[in-house]
Design a protein that fits this description.
- A hairpin with a 5-residue loop joins β6 and β7.
- The protein starts with 12 loop residues before the first helix and ends in a 9-residue tail after the last strand.
- Helix content is 30%, strand content 15%.
- The strands form five sheets. Strands 4-3-2-1-5-8-9-10 form an eight-stranded mixed beta sheet.
- The protein contains 15 helices and 19 strands.
- By secondary structure, the chain is α+β, with helices and mostly antiparallel strands.
Length: 470
């Protein structure tokens, strides 16, 4: 079958991801959450694709199955529970362990099993499995952004599926006999150049789509364990279980020398030619910061008698809000350059300008940003928590940022994901922006108003771990 998406020679993994994400969006092939950029796409037809699991002899003979926690694999989790097999699901972002065993209520009916297979059910009906557990995984089901008929797989770029398999290999839970299956839309089956594959990349044995089953007969070996030179100290800080595994392997006499870690899988943060550096603050230029500096400069140059003339342009950006003078100043700093130059912002893998921000956008305030934190570090954390906004307005000098989401539901989901976010030892404050809290827009985002922070620049020391999925 000819691939629906043509891949040109000389592409990168990121080029392939972008092509697939764009194709799915342009052809409306996905369900919520949208857009699919920077996600494992929740494609239409996922249930039909997952149903093909039951026809595999490898599924029928399996006792213990590990399935990733993403939405398109929810029905695969349900099928596994319904077949009375042991279901293991990775801990989101590996922040508190490797994986959990899902334990449905005794005598659970189909509806209860469906609940257990949902993201909330994975949290409510699970028990953790430690590194010392004697577990043998017979079948692994992973999501993909793209996969080839030869078995080469590309995830969303964060490496969790690869890392999970490597960790399972290190603890003896998987071996060469373990079968790996991916569930994707037909358009996600593309030609992936073999030279893009690295030693740590997980390959697949079967591809399930809404229309067919593909046996890859892939000869490339799967990861035999963790390649420590692909990791760095920052990764270990974000995934505490890696520290435990490193200590165990070090005791066993293995080489656990860390490296600089893999290069960033995301697109470059700057999408146009580099902007001129400010002479006053040459080291603080970052996306959104030039708008903050310009807003300050305009305010200092503005004669006092004309002060009333400034908010008019700001109201054009934030019409519909009922903010006070402080909120208007905040909006002016946020909108300064965006209105005049429509500077592009990278969000969720897409580049959007001010004119493309849809109506009904809900803004989240993120305060307590520590001094010295880079906007790239914040964006990485947002992507890791699947809280990438439509637009990010960076005001690092004032220890805050504003995140625009497409609707109240998306903002509420992001708020939940950002609770407990700690960067550089500082706990960040995530709450709806003041104008959103005052709005009368219905929806869950306005049910629980959070108190405004005492200071926009407030930072709280915390030892909380930095808290889905590839």
């Amino acid at each position: 079958m000819e691939p629906l998406i043509k891949i040109n020679p000389g592409v990168t993994k990121w080029d392939i991801r972008q092509k697939v994400w764009d194709y799915i969006e342009e052809n409306n092939l996905a369900n919520f959450p949208r857009p699919v950029h920077n996600r494992i796409p929740n494609f239409k037809g996922a249930v039909e694709a997952c149903n093909r699991l039951t026809a595999l002899q490898e599924f029928k003979s399996s006792q213990t199955i590990k399935i990733n926690p993403d939405s398109p694999q929810q029905h695969a989790r349900f099928i596994t529970l319904e077949a009375h097999k042991t279901l293991l699901v990775p801990t989101p972002r590996l922040r508190s362990g490797l994986f959990n065993k899902i334990v449905p209520p005794q005598g659970a009916n189909k509806e209860q099993l469906r609940t257990c297979s949902s993201s909330q059910g994975v949290k409510d009906f699970s028990v953790p499995i430690g590194l010392d557990a004697k577990v043998k995984v017979d079948l692994v089901v992973v999501g993909s952004v793209a996969v080839s008929e030869k078995g080469f797989r590309i995830g969303k770029g964060e490496g969790f599926a690869d890392l999970e398999y490597a960790m399972m290999a290190s603890m003896g839970a998987v071996d060469e006999s373990t079968v790996v299956v991916t569930v994707v839309h037909d358009c996600q089956v593309v030609d992936i150049p073999e030279e893009l594959m690295e030693k740590h990349d997980l390959t697949v044995d079967y591809i399930l789509t809404p229309s067919r089953v593909i046996k890859t007969n892939c000869l490339s070996p799967k990861p035999q364990g963790i390649i420590w030179t692909k990791l760095d100290t920052e990764k270990l800080e974000k995934i505490p279980i890696l520290k435990k595994l490193l200590a165990l392997e070090e005791q066993a006499g293995k080489d656990v020398t860390l490296g600089a870690g893999p290069p960033s899988a995301g697109p470059p943060l700057q999408t146009g030619p580099p902007k001129k550096q400010s002479r006053r603050k040459p080291r603080q230029k970052a996306i959104g910061q030039d708008s903050e500096e310009e807003a300050k400069e305009e305010k200092s140059k503005e004669p006092q008698p004309n002060a009333r003339q400034r908010p008019a342009r700001v109201r054009k950006e934030s019409r519909g809000s009922e903010g006070d003078g402080a909120e208007r100043r905040k909006r002016k700093a946020q909108s300064g350059r965006n209105i005049k130059e429509k500077s592009p912002e990278e969000t969720g893998g897409q580049v959007v300008t001010q004119s493309k921000i849809p109506p009904g956008v809900t803004t989240v305030y993120l305060g307590g940003i520590p001094t010295g934190l880079r906007v790239s570090e914040l964006k990485t954390s947002l992507r890791e928590r699947e809280a990438a906004p439509l637009r990010l307005t960076w005001q690092g000098a004032q220890h805050r940022a504003f995140l625009d989401y497409g609707n109240p539901e998306a903002a509420e989901k992001a708020l939940e994901a950002l609770q407990g976010l700690s960067l550089n030892g500082h706990l960040l404050q995530a709450e709806l922006a003041k104008s959103q809290r005052r709005s009368k827009r219905p929806g869950p985002a306005n049910r629980k108003a959070r108190p405004a922070p005492a200071s926009d620049a407030e930072a709280v020391d915390s030892k909380s771990d930095v808290h889905e999925h590839d």
